[in-house]
Amino acid sequence: MAKKAVASLQTGSKRLTKAIKMVKSPKTGAYTFVESIMSPDLVNDFLNKK
Fold first, then answer.
1. DSSP string, 14-48
2. In terms of domain of life, where is this protein from (predicted)?
3. DSSP label at 6?
4. Predicted confidence pLDDT, tens digits, the chain (50 residues)
5. Contact at 8 Å (CB) between 18 and 42?
């Protein structure tokens, strides 16, 4: 399913990237996943941001 989602992002003139980050909840300690679709330039900022 991931292949289909990424392939559909690259149609057209804009190139987009889907970034998935694992974030630990301070209350429960459980991990959740945060997904975002953005341009490839902003991926490192998204992953480094707490």
1. ---EEEEEEEE-TTT--EEEEEEEE-GGGHHHHHH
2. Bacteria
3. H
4. 455 556 666 666 678 889 999 999 899 999 999 999 998 898 899 888 86
5. no
